[in-house]
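Q: what does this look like with flavin-adenine dinucleotide bound?
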Amino acid sequence: MRLDTRVIIIGGGQAGLATAFYLRRAGLTPGEDFAVLDAGAEPGGSWPHMWEGLRLFSPATYSSLPGWMMPAWDESRLGFPPRTHVVDYLTRYEARYDLHVLRPHRVTSVARADDDPEGPMTVAAGEVTAAARFVVSATGTWDRPFWPAYPGMREFRGRQLHAAQYQAPGELAGRRVVVVGGGNSAAQILAEVSRVAETTWVTVRPPGFLPDDVDGRVLFATARARIRALSEGHEHSGVAGLGDIVMVPSVVDARERGVLEPHPMFTRLTPTGVAWADGTERAADAVIWCTGFRPALRHLTGLRLHGEAGRVEVGGPSGTRVRREPRLYLVGYGDWVGPASATLAGVGPSARDTANDIMARL
Ligand code: FAD
């Protein structure tokens, strides 16, 4: 299949959908003026792949994309919305705005069609080749889990899995499990695994815990303050507390059961467990690496976008335009492309500014 269009959005998760929403609202016709190519077999971005017990760290009313609020969820009775609520919302969102997401199509490369810096960009995705004036990459981080390297990883005879592979605690019942990582994923996985297994929690730095009455809403308020400060030309310290642990009910419960006790990071794995520099060892059947994700940008490798600092620099009026290839935009990957842009409620402003910049240049 060959597509000729004005804008191609790579990735049909929340960041791609929010960008598509604003392009449509600016007058472009989905499926004609722009196309969304998504590698997933079904809607929802990475949410269908996350572990079963995952819940949002904020209420439904604070988890909305532009245009249409996330449907209500009875928080007082059921806690924050589960991931299935997000999948359902994203599925209905793309249908509601008729965004014509094409799937499954994994983009493997993006290239400049010729030497003309104003010329088209080409996108390859299996049997689909597409050409467009602008490309928005919104591929998230889920496809690139980060595994740190520790001595003994290959010799360890137990099971090692990343948070991206973890599904439900039942698979670890009765085991001795080491949970690695100081963020929200580690705390939430530890909370549920510790109900059925003997757990040890290790972190490189002492983890930060938000007060019990603070949730994701505070992070969004801080993000909004930063957007305001930057637009007024002031500096702002960033999204404070974004890495801190939100005390969702399951994590509070883990604390009350005494299992939310961080230990320093081990220095190596042994064939039968983990060991610290002082010689202490602990037997383990499984290690869960809750060590985060990196931007999934492999499809952009051929464009050679990395600057001297080893990262892709972005800027322009939207803050998402790639400096080394101004026909390309990056939306949703994290604070570095837009404050809180890797969250449901935070991606809107970044998507809007990206769509505005594209419309001004079309
Ligand atoms: P994704 O959801 O990952 O979507 C990217 C899409 O692009 C996917 O469909 C993928 O298949 C596709 N894709 C990837 N590569 C290609 C390619 N080469 N070609 C075509 N398509 C491709 N945020 C909140 O607001 N509240 C929370 O409570 C919250 N909890 C979280 C808990 C966890 C464990 C994690 C990991 C994140 C959480 N987030 C939360 C953060 C954020 O909302 C998610 O990371 C979100 O999925 C990011 O959306 P995205 O659209 O950028 O990426």
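The chain has a mean pLDDT of 93. Residues 134 and 327 are 5 Å apart (CA to CA).
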